């Protein structure tokens, strides 16, 4: 059943993750028996642990007991919906409260369904399957909307969202944020000489090679514009950005894609502009982009097939 449920959801590589929250371990055990075969089951016996698990593990669905000592299920749901990183996780309440007003209250808090206790395994399974299908479909749609159709890497929209998020995270942690913009050298001549279809193939191969090189889970490679790529490197200083950019140039060179009309190399090369800033409230994300752009311009002016780095001003002392 679960196999057919998730058929066609190609972005789903691992088993779906279900978090069961109940202060009675025996109740968790009963529900775990229903799902342990098909899902990765996470468990929590109180509200604070449930919230922590949601932040660190981002389950695909939460089965949440309402009546718990200390933090109730309602409190947990409210907290999850108030936080950007957890607000899209669907919550199903498990409750022995049979009053309609309790259900209305739960829906107003953002729950997607209610299951009455004592539970019926078939009902729990059907309701969870339905909500999971919706969640995974919406994940897939979101992922399509954030992916560049031609190269399969992140698109400009995802780049903008991620840069904003990482800007705020690095500002909070007073950490350096680096950005590399990469541009294929003499790509107009490549297109003119080899044709647009070959040009597209070339961009796909470059994207693939760059993607393999961008390894840290918080780094992001995106298609920035036509033949431009960008790489966001959170918590990375100028030296780190230079190192990464040089590596990116090397992997493209190593592809050895013949470029007979390039004036710098017999094979396709790229130029890179890297910029590093420690974000603070006096700066904007546009400054980082424009510094990286300026560095890229210098790399082009300096002869192409090279990296230039610009380090932005340090934040003022507080
Ligand atoms: N095949 C293909 N070409 C594209 C795509 N997006 C942009 N281009 C082409 O990339 C070329 C970029 O040319 P320019 O900006 O003049 O720069 P360049 O020829 O690479 O020269 P330099 O950047 O100065 O080394 C243009 O001819 C665009 O049409 C695409 O998706 N596919």
Characterize the structure shown:
- The chain is α/β, with parallel strands linked by helices and about 325 residues long.
- It folds into 2 domains: about 1-145, 3-Layer(aba) Sandwich (Rossmann fold), CATH 3.40.50.2300; about 155-310, Reverse transcriptase/Diguanylate cyclase domain (Alpha-Beta Plaits), CATH 3.30.70.270.
- Helix content is about 45%, strand content about 20%.
- It has 11 helices and 10 strands.
- It has helices at about 1-5, 25-35, 45-55, 75-80, 100-110, 120-145, 155-175, 185-195, 195-215, 240-255, 285-300, and strands at about 15-20, 40-45, 60-65, 90-95, 115, 175-185, 220-225, 230-235, 270-275, 305-310.
- Strands 2-1-3-4-5 form a 5-stranded parallel β-sheet, with helices on both faces. Strands 7-8-6-9-10 form a 5-stranded mixed β-sheet, with helices on both faces.
- Helix 8 crosses helix 9 (about 195-215).
- The longest helix has 25 residues, at about 120-145.
- It is elongated and about 75 Å long.
- Guanosine-5'-triphosphate binds near residues 188, 189, 300 and 304.
- One of its GO terms (cellular component) is plasma membrane.
- It holds the Pfam family Response_reg.
Question: Which helices and strands appear, and what pairs or packs with what?
Answer:
Blueprint (H helix, E strand, L loop, with lengths): L1 H4 L11 E5 L3 H11 L4 E5 L2 H11 L3 E5 L7 H10 L8 E5 L4 H10 L3 E4 L4 H25 L10 H18 L3 E8 L2 H8 L1 H18 L6 E6 L2 E7 L3 H17 L15 E8 L7 H17 L5 E5 L7
Parallel strand pairs: 1-2, 1-3, 3-4, 4-5, 9-10
Antiparallel strand pairs: 6-8, 6-9, 7-8
Helix pairs in contact: 3-4, 8-9, 9-10
This protein binds guanosine-5'-triphosphate.
EC number: 2.7.7.65
Enzyme class: transferase
Organism: Reinekea forsetii
